[in-house]
Design a protein that fits this description.
The protein is an alpha+beta fold. The chain is 19% helix and 27% strand. The chain is built from 5 helices and 16 strands. The strands form 4 sheets. A 6-stranded antiparallel beta sheet has the order 7-6-16-15-12-13, with no helix packed on it. A 5-stranded mixed beta sheet has the order 9-8-10-11-14. A hairpin with a 4-residue loop joins strand 10 and strand 11. The radius of gyration is 20 Å and the shape is globular. About 25% of the residues have low confidence.
């Protein structure tokens, strides 16, 4: 049985079904669970061939109506979400610097149905390096790691270890091996050059710089005339892989059907900002 299915079943059995009320809200717990999984994937840091560290402290920002619906169950829901992260990390062979915690917070700038997930790496006071997946525990949150929310976690109480050998190296783990570097990580590229562009309302906009800012402002790299789009709404960063980052917009971004603040892009990814759909494209040569 998959991690998400087990999470759903645990929620259904909590407090004689009181979570049935929660499922009627615009933001559902399963959506948040999926966003936490993506947050782990997007912020995974390879320490060495045997250890990939992911954030362990998460803040889920909700609109006022959604927060009020979920807050009566916030303690139980936070524990279940933390348990889901632990199970997912075990499945993906991720490790943590400290205890897994999930916090729900109200954000006045979000409309009903929208949410943001932020994450950081927090080291336990007794931590001497990456730890295996842990069960959620209580107590105050420890000191934050440098870099804060929304960026790849930085080791706190131990110096960075060298990454494993690059793909193709005689000592590198073969593809599909549990210790192999995740697909899409930066590595040697044999020739060729990747072109990047976005398609908006049947118009193609080439991405010729490492970053591309989209928004309603005339100062944005690509201007989108849509009242639901903020002046500086989001930023695409080309690389291996390419990513998109919300820049604190009012209405957020939806990538391939998922509300998010940061996501990995693939050729054909569909990004929705306001009432506008953007298609991200990339091709070799």
């Amino acid at each position: 049985m998959g991690v998400m299915k087990r999470f759903e079943q645990r929620l259904e059995g909590l407090v004689n079904g009181t979570f049935a009320k929660v499922f009627k809200s615009e933001v559902q717990p399963v959506e948040i669970a999926g966003a936490l999984q993506r947050e782990c994937d997007n912020n995974a840091t390879i320490w060495n061939r045997d250890r990939t560290v992911v954030p362990n402290d998460f803040i889920v920002e909700l609109s006022t109506p959604d927060f009020e619906r979920l807050s009566p169950y916030s303690g139980q829901l936070s524990d279940e979400l933390a348990g889901m992260v632990r199970d997912y990390a075990k499945q993906q062979r991720y490790t943590f610097m400290g205890t897994i915690k999930v916090h729900l917070e109200k954000a006045d700038d979000l409309d009903t149905g929208l949410y943001r997930v932020r994450s950081r790496t927090l080291a336990s006071s007794t931590s001497q390096g990456p730890q295996g997946p842990q069960a959620p525990q209580g107590g105050p949150a420890p000191h934050a790691a440098p870099g804060g929310y929304g960026y790849p976690p930085q080791p706190v109480s131990a110096p960075p270890m060298p990454a494993g050998p690059p793909p193709g190296h005689p000592h590198a783990a073969p593809p599909g091996h549990p210790h192999a570097a995740p697909a899409g990580r930066p590595g040697p590229v044999a020739g060729g050059r990747t072109r990047h562009w976005v398609e908006i309302n049947n118009n193609r906009h080439q991405i010729t710089r490492p970053t591309l800012v989209l928004g309603r402002s005339t100062e944005a790299d690509v201007r989108i005339d849509d009242p639901g789009v903020s002046r500086r709404h989001c930023e695409i960063r080309t690389g291996t892989p390419s990513t998109i980052q919300d820049l604190g917009s009012t209405n957020g971004i939806v990538v391939d059907g998922q509300h998010t603040t940061r996501a990995t892009l693939r050729d054909g990814s569909r990004i929705v900002v306001g009432n506008t759909t953007i298609v991200y494209r990339q091709a070799e040569g």
